[in-house]
Amino acid sequence: MSTTLDTGNTAWLMASTAMVLLMTPGLAFFYGGMVKTKHVLVMLKMSFVCLALVTLLWLAIGYSLAFGKDVGGWGLIGSPAHWMMHDIGMTSLNGSIPTVIFSGFQMAFAIITVALISGSIAGRATMRGWLWFVLAWTLFVYVPMAHWVFAPDGWVTAHLGALDFAGGMPVEINSGAAGLAVAIVVRKRKDFERETIRPHNLPLVVIGLALLWFGWFGFNAGSALQSGGSAPMAFLNTQLAACGAMVGWPLIEKWRLGHVEMLGVASAAVAGMVAITPACGEVSPIGALVIGFVAGVVCAFAINVKYKLRYDDTLDVVGVHGWGGIVGVLGIGLFATLQMSGKKGLFHGGGIDLLWRQAVGALVCAAFSFGVTWLIAQAIERTVGFRAAEDYEHVPGAEEEQAYDDETIAEIRRRLAQARVPVAVGPGGAAEPGSGSADAELLAELREVLQRREQEK
Q1: Is 0.85 topped by the overall pTM?
Q2: Among residues 120, 150, 287, 340, which one has the fewest Cβ atoms lying within 10 Å of its Cβ?
């Protein structure tokens, strides 16, 4: 690897870092549109707080533990020698790129990974518990796994010999397994099997998807750490996988429901990009298209597993990111090409050698993430509290900020509560028969509509 500054590579990684950072606000909109009205602001806060806390943690110790020189030669954790970016200055290089911007790029990965987990507990976690979770989980789960996979001397890369181009294991499988663990600890919503959350704002979901899609090109192609080489192919493969999933998922949805929903199309695009994340720089365009299509089909089924196993993965983090990541990591073992990755997958004459390494990597990362996350979530629940009250204590009250102006509806509700049913007077001063009854029925219907809307918020 070159040790001379390359301005072209540096410019591309700076742009990629900005694109990946934009994905977290995009995720906030994506999740925010999917929940009830009363939870949208909390979902936005849960994502944006990750931008602040993870950035500070990364500066303090996260980068050093993830990318410092390996401690003990086992590939498990890096040295804390670079805490607070010690000994890293303007002239420090990671290959041909300034170390500070490489650190910023990897920091953006850490931010969105923990933010993803919020979707598994949407609408039922305390903000206090979430703040502690973000710090503890990033330090004890994400940072070690980033060292395993992204550091050149990490055990997945250097010892196991598995491939992961842009984070299928430390980002996608990790967030999916962690989402499952925290969903179990925080416990399910009352009657969640019978009550499906209807997105309160699908256009907001699509806006979030657009930002995620844009950022994903930086996420995947930026992971090449150069503007040439495998970056252009990773860029194209990202688009192909997303589109492949947008064919596979809707086919299943049409078969099962008889129609295709916009939410399903948006989720399909995410599933495709999740699956291609580890494989984007390892497979051919045809392989990327197949991986995307398969991920769309698998995830369309996987999002319903929670009802059979009775865990409340509210916004399907497990079903999309967990299972989508598994499809992508195993897909490398099937579709990797010698030209792209330097290794051959099963379908290119490489046998199962690479496939079993990919499977072991996925299994160990999932088990580690689930186990440590469960312990962290349990500790938070038993100390500061993680599960919100049944009536959800973070619903904004009259004195707090609200996502939407409901004053007009509130005024109508107040006036209906005070309304008296008028009696229409006919000729000669006689009351018209049935008019009071009709007005009473109208008022009752209006009250019912407002009450139903309040319950759905």
Answers
A1: yes
A2: 150
